[in-house]
Amino acid sequence: MIFIVTLIAATFAYQSSSAQAFEKGGKYINVNLGAAQMWHMGGTYFDGWNGGYFGYSPITGQLGLQMEFGVHEYVGVGFTTGVGFGAGLGSYYYRGFWGRTGYAFQPEVNIPMGAFANFHFYQLIADKTGKDIHADKLDIYAGLNVGTGPAILLPRNSSNTHVSALFFIGPQVGIRYYFNDKVSINGELGYGKSFFNAGVTFKL
Description:
Blueprint: H1 2-17, E1 27-37, E2 39-41, E3 53-70, E4 75-94, E5 97-105, E6 108-110, E7 113-119, H2 121-129, E8 138-153, E9 162-178, E10 183-190, E11 196-203
Antiparallel strand pairs: 1-3, 1-11, 2-9, 3-4, 4-5, 4-6, 4-7, 6-8, 7-8, 8-9, 9-10, 10-11
C-alpha cells in the first residue's frame, strides 16, 4: 500500500515538472482569507454629522473567491468576489473638512465584486533566461484590481441597519507555489480587494 501511494505521488511530481505554473489558456480558482480596507460611500450612521458624511474606510476580514483566465503567456484577467465581515474599525471623513477624520466601530457584512489583471513576470524571466528557476512550481505576478459592491452596516447602539456602496481600486503582488500540477498555496499583498490574503489555488 505504501509503495502504491509513493508511486502515485512520484507520478504527480513528474507531471508537474513538465507543466508551467502559469500559461495561456489556463484557468485558476483562488480561495483566500485575508483583510481589506474599502471605501464606503454614503448610507451609514455618520450621515449628517458636521456638514455631511463624505466617506468611511473600515478594515474588515474577507473570505475571497477569484477566477483568473490566462489570456496570454504572461497575462491573466479575471473577477473577484466574496464576503467581508467582522469588526469594521475604520476612519470617516467629512465634506468640506478633508483631513478631518475620526475612528468608529461599525459591524458589517459586505459583498465586493470586481475585476483584475495580472502580469506573470516570473514565467517571462524563466523563458527569456532559459534557466531552471522552478517556473513549473513557482508563479510570481503583479497587477491591478478595481470593483464595487454593497456593504450592510449592522445596527450599532441605537442606530439602524444601513446599506453603503463599496469602492476599491489598487495594486497587488502575489505568489503561488504548486505541490503538483493542479494545486498550490498562494499569498497576495496590495490594496483594494485586500491588504493581504492567503489560501489555495486550483488549476483547472
